[in-house]
Amino acid sequence: MKKVLREITLDLVRVTEAAALVSSLQLGRGDKEAVDRAAVDAMRGMLDYIPMRATVVIGEGEKDKAPMLYIGEKVGTWEADSPEYDIAVDPVDGTRLVAYGLSNAISVLAAAEKGAITYLPTFYSWKLAVGPELAGKLDLNLSITENLRRASEVLGVKISEITVVVLNRDRHRDIIEEIRSAGARIKLISDGDVAAAIATAIPESGVDIYMGIGGSPEAILAAAALRCLGGEMQLRLWPHSREEKEKVLSDGYDLERIYRTEELVSGEDVVFVATGITSGDFLKGVRYMRDKVITESIAMRARSRTVRKITAYHDVKHKHVPLKSRGGDVSFFELQR
Predict the structure, then answer these.
(1) pTM for the full model?
(2) What is the DSSP track for 225-242?
(3) Residue 153 burial (C-beta neighbours within 10 Å; 0-12, 13-18, 19+)
């Protein structure tokens, strides 16, 4: 298993590259559904080429609501001697960002040993993400003000020098007000909280803390990356309706429990890959230059904490992308027309 995960890391990069390339053709057209359809089709098509026996545990939704990359779907070649493990995917983290030509959209995939990726029963979670310097130093049970005070002490800076990323949502009004009252800087984002959480562990991003209520699947993907970067994700389940709350409680979940990084994605054989679709805090987006298309991807492994950035130059006239809906490879040049 250890050897195989290392060997297929670059193959997994090709998966997010394909999703980024095809979805980038929808840039600025205002159609979020078209962005997602394109990315899902390309990601699912490329996964058929990867020598593995993998199960989607975080994907596009339940089988009856998602035609491809649904939870429980089997992907890969499924050859007898291939390794078996679980994957979490988000073909586009930030479909709205691509649809309207905004920054920070990425295509994401995480792979781990069978059973290593935790299932979260709520659509949303209360999340707190930090980089290596603050890992283990903050606590989701504490107030925002107290966590900012602790961060100030650990980092050796004034609270006014700390930057917190928050999704710009009505539900975050109180959170934003408390951060402002404490004196910290705020970076509000419209979408793309996987990239935002990971940015806390990227020194050049200028981001120190990510907090707020966001998607649970995105939390798992960010946790996989933070495992590889030495950062930390903490979360608490946040039911968004009375019906969801009743179901979660009846299933035996504790709404006060704090999940931490290693509980969300366990084991040492964790791989995280992502490709930029639109340029953002830590990845450049897809760029078109005459007969070439340039992509930038990142690949990480938890075991070695090795992080690789990969710049690829794709020759438009020779590039083919496998689309599941077409049953095989399609010329990228033809897709552009």
Answers:
(1) 0.93
(2) HHHHHT-EEEEEE--SSH
(3) exposed
